[in-house]
Design goal:
alpha+beta, 5 domains, Jelly Rolls, six-stranded mixed beta sheet, Immunoglobulin-like, about 775 residues, flat
Length: about 775
């Protein structure tokens, strides 16, 4: 059945889409079966509604056909039905012609592919196209269905593979209904279902993750149904991901480690099949090089289990240098996930095993801060950063003396920074992996650190380096063409280590004092936070490697085997890992320049000879240079998590005066607009000074939102650049408070900014006008 028509802009209104023309048609179905309804238009965005004879809505569709054409495909019982043919764009798009077709869909019955017996796999192949029958479960997705018989109970593996489609499998028991489904259980985006089944008849649906019009015009696939030999299976290696661990929450844009434990639960070793294991991780926009592990007689035998860290270790698992954690960065706030998997292949490259585990976590838009009191320029402020259910973090800074007063942006940035240092650095400073294990007792030697920047830390290291070299007299020995004694160079390393230890004892005493004050309720000041942050960076990146090198020298001198002692070799290996960033002559030249020397060639020659005579000297230097080189990146991540990376006052205090520039985009004069809906929700957006109004996709404050809890909109953009997000919250007295956080992290509280409890429904109300600049996306 087909018919043509025209939306003239003067037709009857759609009963579902006011402002859109609609034509209504009635049709009858004589016998039960699948029916496809297509509504096509070259000039309009078609929209379909399917109703029962009594006018009850059954389903609707917008873009289920090609392009923006609409399609409904559904199994219908005998009876009379009604179709409304309308548009998504409404009359403002002008008149348009359309064609409507209603037809039974042939070829949707499942194909019987045989009886599954040992050694006789069942196969099928086909293509997904725009006209393929819709899935039984999600009809917009093209699907093919197959039946097979299982004469005896057994373990069945079903693989659905496609080079240019994204396969999805469903397994249906004729007795129990849907019993299993899988999207990416095979290699890559391929699907796999493996489970023990009772004898009977089963239906397999081979479909795709993509709807008809979102996939290639034609995507070929292959289906394989295999009966697993249980005895053979037990004798094979079975490599499994046993556990995956991530933090419960992470900050968007900041890397974190994903740890896991992997083991062989089979009776055979990986070397028995001459195979290999391929480890990989995926997540939203996460694509990393897989880890390929080649089997050996010493590793991957039956029963082994390897962990990447203490987070996933068990009493029976051990470390393996080939099994390392994945470093992952997730960039969008909200509930998220990672998937860690392993593929086992035999000597011919054929897949013989696959296993993976999902791990859910929350991605936050910024760093969460418990309520903490800080001191800025002699005044106290309360700082708190809370996350909502979507991971959006809202930071509030309130004056203790006057809770209603506005907080200037520079003061606000200082307060947030100080609160961040208090909660993220001071509270757990002695548990930080970078300094855990360093001695807190012994000789104390004062030290002053000028900043947390790489340049400031490099300057401090350069002064120590030059002082140690001058005191050693090694330059004179080299000038006299004398060979350098390894023990003399070791003495330089040891003396530097002892000085570093004394500096650390001094710093730890400062930190203990600050922690004691915090426990007594005293506020950390901005100046103290800057000093603490700088001290910690110095201890972690300069002192810690120097102390480790000295400990290695002491251990080698005490051990009978010297530097060949296994424990000493482990200490050297740790330093080698720290020094593996590729530090070279350019880094050393910066050290020499910071030390004020002009004889770069002479110092470089001396450094090279000292490294050759005693490699521990070079490892110490390179470990420090690598750590110092990462300092700026870590500091910027810290500030970005607090949304103050553009604060000139904070950057300058940390040793980045050259970065204290205004990097914001053009200024806009805006107001927040808000109105009460019939359902009690508050809808909000912004209005530019030109009168243009813009509403974000996430823009409602629920009627049930608890008093005092901020809700945050999605990004608002101007000229394709984000300018910020609207914050709103209900107050205990029934009012609603509005605020705005710019793309650069500034909290703006316009005046006026409150909505009374009895505002009228549907009327846009406006806040005071304020200026805001565009910047980088908050996500």
């Amino acid at each position: 059945m087909t018919t043509d028509g025209r939306w003239t802009t003067e037709d009857c209104d759609s009963q579902f889409r006011p402002g859109s023309d609609a034509h209504t048609y009635r049709f009858s179905v004589a016998g039960e079966g699948r029916v496809r309804i297509d509504l096509k238009s070259a000039d309009a965005d078609s929209y379909l509604y399917l109703l029962a004879e009594d006018g009850r809505l059954i389903t609707d569709n917008d873009d289920g056909g090609a392009g923006v054409d609409a399609r409904i495909e559904r199994d219908l019982s005998p009876g009379t039905y009604i179709v409304e043919a309308t548009t998504a764009g409404g009359r403002k798009r002008g008149p348009a012609d359309f064609s409507l077709s209603i037809s039974p869909v042939a070829g949707c019955d499942p194909v019987h592919i045989g009886s599954l017996t040992p050694g006789a796999d069942l196969t099928a192949s086909g293509s997904w196209t725009l006209d393929t029958c819709g899935s039984r479960f999600v009809v917009e997705h093209p699907a093919h269905s197959y039946l097979f018989d299982l004469p005896q109970d057994g373990r069945v593996r079903i693989d659905l593979t496609s080079e240019n489609g994204d396969p999805v499998l469903s397994l249906v028991s004729l007795a129990e209904g849907l019993i299993s489904a899988n999207d990416d259980g095979g290699e890559g985006t391929n699907s796999r279902i493996e489970r023990y089944l009772q004898a009977g008849t089963y239906l397999v649906e081979a479909t795709t993750y993509l709807e008809r019009d979102y996939q290639p015009l034609m995507a070929d696939f292959e289906l394989l149904v295999h009966l697993v030999d249980e005895n053979e299976r037990r004798e094979m290696p079975r490599i499994k991901i046993e556990e995956v661990h991530t933090p419960d929450s992470v900050v968007a844009g900041q890397p974190f480690d994903t740890h896991y434990r992997i083991g062989n639960v089979g009776d055979g070793g990986l070397a028995d099949i001459g195979g290999r294991a391929v480890l990989y991780i995926v997540g939203p926009r996460v694509f990393q090089e897989p880890i390929t592990i080649i089997a050996s007689e010493d590793h991957w035998g039956a029963g082994v289990s390897y962990h990447t860290g203490e987070e996933t270790a068990t009493a029976g698992s051990v470390e393996n240098e080939a099994v390392k954690p994945f470093e992952v960065t997730l960039n969008s706030p909200g509930p998220s996930w990672v998937f860690v998997a392993v593929i086992t292949e035999d000597s011919s490259g054929e897949e013989v095993g696959f296993y993976g585990q999902w791990q859910n976590l929350m991605v936050l838009s910024g760093t969460v801060l418990d309520e903490v009191r800080v001191e800025i320029d002699g005044m106290e402020y309360e700082v708190q950063a809370q996350a909502d259910d979507e991971g959006i973090v809202t930071t509030t800074v309130t004056s203790v003396a006057d809770e209603e007063s506005e907080v200037d942006p520079p003061v606000r940035a200082k307060a947030i920074y100080t609160a961040g240092v208090h909660t993220q650095v001071l509270e757990g400073i002695f548990e930080d992996p970078g300094i855990t294990g360093l001695s807190l007792t012994g000789r104390s030697m004062p030290v002053n650190v000028e900043g947390a920047s790489s340049e400031a830390l490099l300057e401090a290291f350069a002064a120590q380096y030059k002082s140690a070299i001058d005191a050693s007299g090694l330059a004179d020995s080299l000038d006299a063409e004398e060979a350098l004694l390894p023990t003399t160079i070791e003495d330089v390393v040891l003396d530097n280590s002892r000085t570093a230890s004394a500096h650390f004892v001094f710093l730890s005493q400062d930190w203990n004092s600050l922690q004691s004050r915090a426990r007594a309720g005293q506020s950390l000041s901005f100046e103290e936070a800057i000093e603490l942050h700088s001290q910690f960076a110095y201890a972690e990146r300069v002192l810690s490697p120097a102390i480790a090198a000295g400990e290695a020298v002491e251990a080698a001198r005490e051990a009978k085997q010297g530097w060949n002692d296994p424990d000493v070799e482990d200490m050297v290996d740790d330093l080698t890992d720290q020094a593996s960033c590729g530090s070279g002559a350019a880094d050393l030249q910066m050290v020499f320049e910071e030390a004020g020397t002009t004889d770069f060639a002479g110092l470089a020659r001396l450094d090279a000879e000292m490294r050759a005579a005693s490699p521990i000297f070079g490892l110490r230097n390179d470990a420090v240079l690598c750590a110092v080189g990462e300092a700026d990146i870590e500091t910027m991540r810290f500030l970005q998590g607090l949304a103050i990376a553009d604060s000139g006052k904070v950057l300058e205090a940390l040793g980045y005066p050259e970065l204290s520039v205004d990097v914001a985009g053009p200024l806009y004069r805006v107001r927040i607009i808000a109105r009460l809906g019939e359902d009690g929700r508050i809808e909000h957006g912004i209005e530019l000074s030109s009168g243009v109004q813009m509403v974000p996709s996430r823009r409602f404050l629920p009627a049930s939102s608890p008093a005092g809890r901020w809700r945050v909109s999605s990004d608002i953009t101007a000229d394709n650049d984000p300018i910020g997000r609207i914050h709103s919250r209900r107050l205990a007295d029934g009012r609603v408070e509005l605020a705005f956080v710019s793309a650069t992290g500034e909290m703006i509280t316009p005046n006026p900014r409150f909505l009374n409890a009895d505002i009228p429904t549907g009327v846009w109300l406006r806040s005071g006008e304020f200026s805001v600049a565009s910047g980088q996306s908050l996500e």
